[in-house]
Amino acid sequence: MGESLIDKDIRKARTLPSRFYSETEEFERLKSVFTGWQFAAHQSELDINAILPLPHIEAINSESMVLVRGEETNCMSNVCTHRGMRLALEPCNKKSLRCRYHGRTFHLDGTIKHMPEFDQAIGFPSQDDHLVKFPLRQWLGMYFTAVEQENTIPWEMLEQRLGFLHPEAFVFDTALDRDHTIEANWMLYVDNYLEGFHIPFVHPELNQALDSSGYVTETFEGGVMQIGKAVEGDVKFDLPEGHPDEGQDIAAYYLWLFPNMMFNFYPWGLSLNIVVPVSTNQCRVLYRGYVKDQALAKEGAGSILDTVEDQDQWVIEAVQRGMVSRAYDRGRYSPTMEQGVHHFHRILYQAIQRSGR
Ligand code: FES
Ligand SMILES: [Fe+2]
């Protein structure tokens, strides 16, 4: 099985074999793609709580992390260096991190501050007693962290496209939080997200709000951008002079970052979906909302999110059942409508090959 599993030429390529969606061995192999960049939190969440544990990242890649705003902001291990207890259990604003097991205390920069009953310990504290720091990157007010920085994301290019929205000024709105469990493999959720092909068939209401003839898909290293055009009289972005899409009527930018993050930018703000793999036939999708303009949230392409979500879940759960059929293995891609899915399968396969699993 070489690099040619998914042909580079979409006109000839066949989709990922169904075992990738249905077999435990493949599910385990694919876990290796989750150690690269992951969304940690938006700046507005850190404004509320200086100590922010990141349970969603632990659910994704088994690494317990905590984001801490001290003199500088760091993403650190949330595991006590004494005997491995979890440090921060809830978001809070304490001035230090104190372990609830035996009282080891850390400064907000992760260095050890105090440990009871260790006066006689030799060579203590050492470098190993401080908390390990993980890579951290801030992009348009959003923090990203990684276990290892293995994937490249063209942050600057994406900033040119989306920076005009000033997402750093958006505000986290807990009323938009959702946590859905879906009886389908995480990749089916991504596959479905990466094509607008199904919109007229699965989402009649959304279809009315979008001009499907103007739906554009762009692929780049580490992700896919889909652009939804607005219909006459609809809410659309006010694009500044010199913007790459100047002059177009755009209702939404749908940005997917490999492997599991979806940033849906609407004139009202940002709806973020994070897909958490659970098993071959189950995933969770976490939703978070960051609002720019509350009044606009009720209009346009971003206003029927819950309906669209139910429709998508219904269809991908049905596809999951198709993945175990003896009669189905691989399909083909529409060369005009499924460039995003094709790109995802290619970079996914390249990533597992790189990881040598
Ligand atoms: S495990 Fe944290 S102080 Fe013992
Ligand atoms: Fe959909």
Q: How would you portray this structure in words?
A:
37% of the residues are buried. The protein has two domains: 3-34 and 155-354, Alpha-Beta Complex (Naphthalene 1,2-dioxygenase Alpha Subunit, Chain A, domain 1); 38-139, 3-layer Sandwich (Rieske Iron-sulfur Protein), CATH 2.102.10. The longest helix has 19 residues, at 305-323. 24% of the residues lie in helices and 28% in strands. It contains ten helices and 17 strands. It is an alpha+beta fold and 357 residues long. The chain has a seven-stranded antiparallel sheet with strand order 11-17-16-15-14-13-12, sandwiched between helices. It binds FE2/S2 (inorganic) cluster and fe (ii) ion. FE2/S2 (inorganic) cluster binds at residues 80, 82-85, 99, 101-104. Residues 192, 198, 202-203, 308, 312 line the site of fe (ii) ion.
Quickly give the structural class. alpha+beta
The low-confidence runs, each spanning 5 or more residues with pLDDT under 50, are none
User: Which quaternary structure do these chains form?
Assistant: single chain
The averaged pLDDT comes out at: 93
Q: Count every beta strand, where a strand is a DSSP E run of 2 or more residues.
A: 17
Main beta sheet strand tally, sense and closure: 7 strands, antiparallel
CATH class identity of the largest domain: Alpha Beta
CATH fold-level label of the largest domain: Naphthalene 1,2-dioxygenase Alpha Subunit, Chain A, domain 1
Q: At the fourth CATH level, what is the homologous superfamily of the largest domain?
A: Naphthalene 1,2-dioxygenase Alpha Subunit, Chain A, domain 1
User: What would the principal axes of the Cα set say about the shape?
Assistant: globular
